[in-house]
Amino acid sequence: MTDYLIDAIQSETTRSASRDASNLAALAILGVDSSLQNPDAVSCSAQMIEIAALRLTLEGDGGATEACQEAFELLRAALQDEGLRSKFTTLETSQTRTRAAAFGVLAGMHAQTRQLLSEVAEAGIEAVGWGIATELTVLEVWQLLIRKHGWGDLDRLRELIEKIRERQATKEPPFLQNQAEAADGWKLVAMYHLLRAAEIVAEYTKEGSSGGRFDPVEQAEVHFDRARDAAE
Fold first, then answer.
1. How many CB atoms lie under 10 A from the CB of residue 184?
2. Is the pTM for the entire model greater than 0.85?
3. Taking the mean position of all CA atoms in its chain, how far away is CA 6?
4. Are the C-beta atoms of residues 42 and 81 closer than 8 Å to each other?
5. Which of 148, 153, 72 is nearest to 109 (CA)?
């Protein structure tokens, strides 16, 4: 990890932002309405900690768990603070929630992550363009998979994937022809692979196999790799 990132995550600004986020979470548990003292610092610190947590995780560093926990807490605070949250679009809110949930899983904060995902908002994909509709669906699918409140979440996940596939034939061509740039097309490819990866894991969780195979990790990793290649 670069010296710049190390200095950033160890700075007093970041430490203060973490304390601010912790205080907000504690008050939320007590049912007390509150807000961040310095929301801009929390937002900037979250970006720095996210990068650091990802780097440490990929490097297998022993400090990865603590960094992931801090990333989760800062992102959660951004969602809990009404002022910050009001600036988010529907897509940005879902993106933030999904990233927070991912860091929560990496940090082993399973109870807190399920609480964060207690109310997964249904994506209103009918009123938005195909690119955003697809991304909102991907985000909701992965939130449901991480939360997994019984078979109901897995059934809802499957319904969302079926719905996006039904709409793909009529919605994708005009989007690619009239609205999208080349990068948007590749982003769609990545989104479709992420949907398939989630579907494989969900099928295995519910049925004990996926497509007659019993290697969900290997199957999903193929689609993760292809999603990453498309994103690059």
1. 14
2. yes
3. 24
4. yes
5. 72
